[in-house]
Amino acid sequence: MSFDPKNYEITVASSVSDRDGIGVEIYRDSSMVCEIFRDDTKRTREIWTSKQEVSLEEMEGFIKIFKEEIPWDFIEYEE
Question: How confident is the prediction along the chain (79 residues), in pLDDT tens digits per residue?
């Protein structure tokens, strides 16, 4: 099975409530499979998966999408 991003719906979303950053939400068949998020406050990049099975090939494809859609550098905040 080869990864084809056309099989997924990709949503770029930002959040400024409990966390502050931007990420991608990845859906398959209208159900969220994975979210990859760059948290500018914690200066981390994190992956959340649903309870669906996610193959290594899919996860590598999801990470590639994240790197293409989301700027890598964190936002610098003045203290």
Answer: 689 999 999 999 998 878 899 999 999 999 999 999 999 999 999 999 988 789 999 999 999 999 999 999 999 877 6
Look at residues 46, 50, 58, 48 and name the one whose alpha carbon lies nearest to residue 7.
Answer: 58
Secondary structure (3-state) at 64: helix
CA dist., res. 73 & res. 5, Å (int): 24
Question: Which two structure tokens, joined as six digits, stand for 70?
Answer: 């989301």
